[in-house]
Amino acid sequence: MKKMLNFHFDSVVLNEPDNMAVLRSVMRIKSDQARREWLYNLIGATYEDVKRAAHTNQKLAGLNAVKSLIITSSFVDNGQQKFVLGQRMCEMFSLTRLDGINLDDIRLPFPTFYVHFDADLGWKIWGGNRTHWHTVRGAYVCEMDYDLMDPSYHPPHRIVNVQLWGEANEKSRRPGDDATYWMPFIDSLIQKSGAKDLEGYLDIKLSQPVKSGRLYGANFLASPSAEDYEVDDSEETAAAARPSVEMGVRVILNLLLYLSSENPELRRERFGEARVKSLQKKMRRAKKKRREEYEGRISLAKSTVTYVGESIESEFESMQTENSERAGIRRHIVRGHWHTYRVGPGRAKKTRKWIKPFWRGHGETLHKHYSVVEPEVADG
Q1: What distance separates the 2 farthest-apart alpha carbons in the chain?
Q2: How many folded domains does the chain comprise?
């Protein structure tokens, strides 16, 4: 029997009728700009209203909901493409540096897709004073030729958005009672920062306060109040979240490089056919008022799942230790990196190879842990 994977979309949309109803309404609107305008109207504000009042929790909540629905609708438009990374692939990508890598080197296989982390890696983001910390289990990645927040502005530079998702925890009220962290990569801002590459930009970006927040409740657009959205930018919380954010974002960027490298190891499966047949049977037996719900679930049931680097998972466990003649070197992991080669006539073509992390030394193993050290929070 196949292992069931807890994808964000399945948990928060397919299994939540209210969320599915809102998403289906969005999907009926074909123009991207019209979708955004419809969503702003739904939260009772124009973009300018949201922009002027962006410092208030209520407007931030509405804006977060709009951004999430824009990403989710684009995810559906692109065929619900899901990539699965096992524990070892996540660990190796998190241990791979991005020296010499620029945003121009990053290519997305689809305009919007989802990456699932198939393990609890100890990475967590803050969900507010009620639910506290949420385990990071995946991320949406999207590239758009417009500002995600502004329905009319088309920037001259690339924008690649990474939205880390922290799944619902034991304090959550429903599956959508979760946490998110957004990190946009914008050409102009990277250039303005003075960073030489993405490794340097991550250092600069993560030296700033890490803000995590979430929309309470499973309904994407349930007229959230001020208490429904919390941003905690205290240094204590930021310091606790920063390693998790770094690891999660680093995994995504290295995955994108791996997918565009030569001969990445991928295995694709189509999902949803059996689910569609099951839902069709239930719909035939359902009462009239529930048939529309089943129709919605059927229309959103199919997806493509791509498993990444399955054989590499076991390879990391059994890597040969590099022999070292230097005495006293204890066993430790050497971080990976990307090496660029010039090949072909006149060495005009560039190709990139992943130099994976490896073990060095002998004896007792040294581990570097990146899990969250959670600050104490008062119950209430």
Answers
A1: 76
A2: 1
